[in-house]
Automatic annotation (TrEMBL):
Coiled coil: none
Gene Ontology molecular function terms on file: 4 iron, 4 sulfur cluster binding; FMN binding; metal ion binding; NAD binding; NADH dehydrogenase (ubiquinone) activity; NADH dehydrogenase activity; quinone binding
Family membership noted in the UniProt record: Belongs to the complex I 51 kDa subunit family.
Keywords: 4Fe-4S, Flavoprotein, FMN, Iron, Iron-sulfur, Metal-binding, NAD, Quinone, Translocase
Catalytically driven reaction(s): a quinone + NADH + 5 H(+)(in) = a quinol + NAD(+) + 4 H(+)(out)
Native source organism of the sequence: Desulfopila aestuarii DSM 18488
Name of this chain's protein: NADH-quinone oxidoreductase subunit F
Amino acid sequence: MEVKILSEKFDIENAHLLEVAKKHGAYSTLDKLFAMEPAAVTEEVKKSGLRGRGGAGFPAGVKWGFLPKDTGKPTYLAVNSDESEPATFKDRYILVRDPHMLLEGIIICCWAIGCNDVYIYIRGEYTTQVKVLQQAIDEAYAAGYLGDKVAGQDFRVDVTVHRGAGAYVCGEETALLESIEGKKGQPRSKPPFPAVEGLYSSPTIINNVQTIASLPFILTNGHEAYTAYGTEKSPGTHLFGISGHVEKPGMYELPLGLPLMEVIDKVAGGVWKGRKLKGVIPGGSSTPVLTVEEAKTVTLDYESMAAHKTMFGSGGIVVLDETVDCVKLVENLINFYHHESCGQCTPCREGLGWMKKITKKLLAGQGTLADVDLLRELCDNIEMKTVCVLSAACTMPVRSYLDKFRHEFEAYAIDNVSADAKLQGN
């Protein structure tokens, strides 16, 4: 069931070092790359169907095609490594275990889009990852894979690592750009979109670490080899981080389209301690929860997730056993998103705070059924009424818990007295 494309060198000792990485094929695509026209590289990526692995799932090659021609401005590449979504930990594996795969992918992308300057925007807390990544960059410069003449070609690629300051919202592409420019990390209104007017008001492509790291395989083996995995509309493989109440949590590279329950049972060892399954968070904390019944029919691809009214997201699967209190889980979620709100938009800044107060009121035994209704109403009133989707990242999952596990919220309400109790009182 597991495959080895992105994770091929993960278990090789010291594969993060250039000498070891080269013995296992690192930078072997460059001769082929520079023999191709940039447009041909973009077309190969389009044919592969590679979709953005940061969560949105937008086709990478199509995004590259949005870049305007002959603007007289430089084109920038920003690699999004601000992996801050709770339950998501795939990109850090690439950064630590095979950073040269990422750098090779960066060179491929730069050739395709005509880019010379790259910024890797990395989560500030990733101290170990930054050290390993910077060491790989330094090695690549020394070996001539980065710098003024990449692999001896008349083509320059310079890579700068830009550390964030611990703001979740900077994972949003325009907030990321604001942060690189030295401004407060707040999302921009769109349009203009980054491909047209991004970093320093110039055309900019923003791709996730895993997206860029997938390019060496595609260029080496051709799009047919990549589309041999996955489904027609969701081709390729993905790094799935499986956590929560399973026997074997961890990182697994799997082809897209596998049944979710088959992955939980056969790959992750099933629900731990012999307990029953209660629900599954399919793609990180911002994705609506799946009930047991839904989990039995969903497959790990973008289309199936959408059909089940949730999202594939970042591939961070969290398994919830029967002991989970959904009200406490929701409180934890709201606390996180309220804390991470940049405060730019009133519905997010004030609305998430209001939701936080209601949840705390319920858990303190002071809430009512009207509070449960209000919490549900706030989800609809806040969502998609802000510049970015941070507020929706909170309201979408909260709504799903309220709709699918409402009885747990009502159980905390002080005016939820059962009919039997009323009769006994008479």
